[in-house]
Each structure stands twice: as structure tokens, then as C-alpha cells.
Specification:
The complex is a heterodimer of chains A (318) and B (182).
Chain A (H helix, E strand, L loop, with lengths): L13 E5 L5 H6 L5 E5 L13 H9 L2 E5 L13 H13 L5 E4 L2 E4 L2 E7 L5 H17 L4 E4 L14 H12 L2 E5 H11 L3 H7 L5 E7 L2 E3 L2 E3 L8 H13 L4 E5 L7 H15 L3 H5 L18 H12 L4
Parallel strand pairs in A: 1-2, 1-12, 2-3, 4-7, 7-8, 8-9, 9-12
Antiparallel strand pairs in A: 5-6, 10-11
Chain B lengths: L34 H20 L10 H22 L2 H6 L2 H10 L9 H15 L5 H7 L15 H10 L15
Chain lengths: 318, 182
């Protein structure tokens, strides 16, 4: 077993996929899945025996499970709700999570629910409020917290900082980890004209726990981060740029709807693996052997990928 | 590169540096920001914005009105998908009126704070009921199944029935989306 950050079963450069009930059997059978993510709010976690059977199968293999929260609203004006935090902590304990993740976003205000993640104003005043919210959350959780940059359709007029600067300050203030969504960086590039390279240079990449990759669609000049379309090369290229700067502990594919055949998901995981290992150019040139085929065997030349499955067949815990 | 704190910066140590080029601020001791005022201002701005997005409120000053419209439509469309999963009969019973009527309603009526898409569907049905536009098939779908034991002497009204069903749900997440082992 290779040594690494220890976040995802002792591996570095782990590859994962968002576990969803619609694709649970598929996820169990995909090659080279080192970790999965579950939407924390949607998992029964009052007792480990009540977890979905598929998650118990994955846990028994030693596949790490990361709860991904969507309703804390850490970017909101209220301190995070203790009941929601307690539930997130409960899920983390039930799946023996190495960490949990949430978003730099607000989801409710003035007694109204947005039903979605909305961007925060990036001002010094908001930074102070949100840093305090993050600390409250960290104090309530049994494992480290990672914060994700959201995909947005609009910006606040009072913004004083870039998103990269804002997140860098939050990391410095709270020690929070980062979940960098490279599809959301692409969204920000299309919708708001940000310079992705500059954003990556500003983000403290050493604080990255893992990275999200997802597909979206361009409609009337606006990028919608749907998680229902194939992952585009533009998004994968940003992943490559990030990995060139700092190889992250893990990269995870998100697919939430319009689920494709398993082969297509396997191909996207393979593309992610190649960017993570810096072999994209070589793969395109056809000079690399042993890229896992669709649901096929995992070639032995790919030690890290085979290690993930090797743990499976051996039934080894970690 | 802008003067941003690196990951190694220690917020607990404050070396003598030009404050203009060192924006690292400890959230506990930042002398510039009044935390109480900061929370109040953030609450006000976010509430005003959310009112524009989900309650038909005016677009707050300074925002791109077209982008706020796009976001508002996107939020309503996301709710529509959830409501359709919770109560598919809405689409079949309302036919052509389904998407338009729901989108108009959702852009001016926030999603209920608890109960997820199921509560959203019920709230939309209540709205149709008040307007006398609730299709019988939807009302039937929302009514409890006929009781097995002898009928109670008096059944609560439509609104009480659906509220009672909602109260049985845990708060804060979408029970329709909960995925548990058998």
C-alpha cells in the first residue's frame, strides 16, 4: 500500500466518484475507485447497520466515504445550526469518514430557503462572519472540514476580493481544508470571465483535500453546472493545470442525473486518472499502456489503480 | 499577485508589517470589522437578494438584473424537478399548464423550510386548491388511503390532512431523497 496523505485509505492521488442510489451497483463495479462521496443529508446514519447496503459493501472493502453536505449554509448570516451539524457529525461517524465537505455558500436567509447553493459577498465583513461560522462547524465535527467553491450565475456588487483570495484568507484564519471544484472554476471563467490560472495561483493548493470534476452545459452564453452532462476537455484541462501546480490527495467525479452507461463513467474516471498522473499528453499520443478499459480488468502496470482493487479482492480493510 | 495570505500564515502571530500588504485578519480580533454589525448587514443583504430570487422581490441595487432572473429561473427549475419526483401526477393532471404554472408560482413562493420537495409539492397543491384549480387526480393523490379500521367520525380538511402528513417528516432534509437500508 502506497503512502500518502492518509485521507483516502492511505493513498495519494486517489480517484473517486459521487455515490448515488441510482448508480450504486455501477459504482461498486467501477475499476479504480478509491473513495466515494455521499450527499450527507440523504443518508440514513442513525446506526451503521442502517446505511445503504452499497455503502456497507464499499466500506467493507476499505473504500473511503466522504459525506458532502449541501444544507449547512456556512456562508449565511446565521451561525450553523447545531442540529444540522450534529447530523453531519453522525453521518461522518457512521461511514468512518476521513473528512467531510461543505460549500462556501449561503442557502437560506430572511426565513426563506434557496434550495440551492448561492454565492456570498466577498467582503472583509462577510469574511469575518463566515470564518466564525467555519470555526463553529469545525468545533462540532469529529473530522476535518473541507470547503468547496460553488458554481455561480451572478456576482455581488460589493465584492472586494476574488474567490481565490477569499478562500485563501479563510484557510489562513481557520485552517479549513479546500475542495476545489474545477468545473466550477470553468463556470466562473465562462460566466464571470475569471482568469483560471490566476485563480489556481491564488488558492493555497496545499490545503486542498480533494477536487471535484463534473460536466455542465452552455446555454445562452451561461455555463450551467448540471452534473448531468459529460465532462468536457475544458474542465479536465483545469484539473491538469491544478495537478501541475500541486498534486491533490484525491479527485472525484460528480454525476447527479442523466446517468450514462457504466463504460462512460469508467472512461471519465480514466481521463481523470490520466490528468492526475500527468499522463494526458502521453495518453492522447497512445503511448501509455494499461489504462483501464470499460469495466475491464485493471492492468498491473497501473500500480495505484490496481492497488485500489487489490484491496477489494483481498478483502483487506485498509 | 495580490497580497493574499499563504497557507503557512499563522493568524495567531502578527509580525510588524505594513497592514496594507498584509490583509491577514484574525476573525476574533479584527479591529476593523464589528462582528454584530457584520452579521446584521450580511443577513439584510442576503435576505433582500433571496427575496428577489424566490419571493418576487425587487432586485437589490447593484446586481445584474438579467443574471438574477436567470438564477431565479434556475432555482425554480430545480424545485420543479424535485416536485415532479415527489408528485408526478401534477404533470399529467395539469398537462400544458404544469411547467408554466409551477414556474410562475415558484418564483414568488419560497420553498418550505422543512419537508423538502414533498412539502414543496403540497404547498403548490394548496395554492392550486385556493384558486380552485386543483385537479381531482392531484387531490386524490395527496389524500390518505382509505383507513382499514372503521372510519373516524370526522376527517380533517384538506389543509389539515397534508399538514399532519408533513409533521411526520424529520426536519431539514428531503425525506423523499433519504436512502436507507431495509
Amino acid at each position: 500500500m502506497s503512502t500518502g496523505s492518509g485521507l483516502f485509505g492511505g493513498k495519494s492521488g486517489a480517484v473517486g466518484i459521487g455515490w448515488r442510489p441510482e448508480i450504486d451497483l455501477t459504482v461498486e463495479r467501477l475499476a479504480g475507485v478509491d473513495f466515494v462521496e455521499v450527499i450527507a443529508e440523504n443518508v440514513c446514519a442513525d446506526h451503521p447497520d442502517h446505511l445503504p447496503a452499497s455503502l456497507r459493501v464499499l466500506r467493507a472493502r476499505g473504500t473511503a466515504v466522504v459525506p458532502h453536505g449541501v444544507s449547512l449554509g456556512l456562508g449565511g448570516a446565521d451561525r450553523p445550526d447545531p442540529e444540522r451539524l450534529a447530523r453531519l457529525a453522525e453521518v461522518a461517524a457512521a461511514v468512518e469518514a476521513p473528512l467531510v465537505s461543505e460549500h462556501l455558500a449561503f442557502v437560506r436567509a430572511g426565513g426563506m430557503e434557496a434550495g440551492h447553493l448561492l454565492p456570498v459577498p466577498r467582503t472583509r465583513a462577510a469574511l469575518r462572519v463566515i470564518a466564525e461560522n467555519v470555526r463553529v462547524a469545525q468545533d462540532s465535527l469529529p473530522v476535518p472540514l473541507a470547503l468547496e467553491n460553488p458554481a455561480t450565475l451572478f456576482t455581488w456588487p460589493e465584492n472586494e476580493m476574488t474567490e481565490g483570495q477569499f478562500l485563501a484568507e479563510l484557510v489562513a484564519m481557520t485552517g479549513v481544508s479546500l475542495l476545489v471544484d474545477v468545473a466550477n472554476l470553468h463556470t466562473e471563467r465562462v460566466n464571470h470571465g475569471i482568469d483560471v490560472a490566476a485563480a489556481l495561483d491564488t488558492l493555497p493548493l496545499e490545503a486542498v483535500a480533494y477536487v471535484h470534476v463534473a460536466g455542465g452545459v452552455l446555454t445562452d452564453g451561461i455555463w450551467h453546472d448540471t452534473h448531468a452532462h459529460p465532462v468536457s476537455d475544458e474542465v479536465l484541462d483545469i484539473l491538469g493545470m491544478l495537478c501541475e501546480r500541486h498534486r491533490p490527495p484525491g479527485v472525484l467525479l460528480e454525476r447527479d442525473a442523466a446517468f450514462p452507461p457504466a463504460d462512460e463513467l469508467q472512461g471519465e474516471l480514466t481521463a481523470i486518472r490520466s490528468r492526475l498522473d500527468g499522463t494526458a499528453a502521453a495518453v492522447k499520443a497512445g503511448s501509455i499502456r494499461g489504462i483501464p478499459g470499460p469495466l475491464g480488468e485493471v492492468p498491473g502496470s497501473r500500480t495505484e489503480v490496481s492497488g485500489a482493487l487489490g484491496g477489494v479482492s483481498a478483502g483487506g480493510g485498509r | 499577485m495580490s497580497p493574499v495570505a499563504g497557507p503557512g500564515a499563522d493568524p495567531g502571530v502578527h509580525p510588524v508589517v505594513d497592514p496594507v500588504v498584509d490583509p491577514v485578519v484574525d476573525p476574533v480580533v479584527d479591529p476593523v470589522v464589528d462582528p454584530v454589525a457584520a452579521r446584521a448587514e450580511l443577513a439584510r443583504r442576503q435576505a433582500d437578494l433571496l427575496a428577489a430570487l424566490v419571493a418576487g422581490g425587487p432586485v437589490p441595487e447593484g446586481f445584474d438584473a438579467e443574471r438574477i432572473r436567470v438564477q431565479s429561473v434556475a432555482l425554480a427549475a430545480k424545485r420543479r424537478e424535485g416536485v415532479l419526483r415527489a408528485l408526478p401526477v401534477l404533470a399529467t393532471a395539469l398537462g400544458d399548464r404544469w411547467p408554466r404554472t409551477f414556474m410562475e408560482w415558484a418564483r414568488t413562493h419560497p420553498k418550505p423550510a422543512v419537508g423538502g420537495s414533498r412539502a414543496d409539492a403540497v404547498a403548490f397543491a394548496e395554492y392550486l386548491k385556493v384558486r380552485g384549480e386543483l385537479p381531482e387526480a392531484v387531490e386524490a393523490a395527496l389524500s390518505p388511503a382509505p383507513p382499514d379500521p372503521p372510519k373516524p367520525p370526522r376527517r380533517p380538511g384538506f389543509v389539515q390532512r397534508v399538514r399532519s402528513r408533513l409533521r411526520r417528516n424529520p426536519v431539514g432534509w428531503d425525506p423523499e431523497a433519504q436512502y436507507c437500508s431495509d
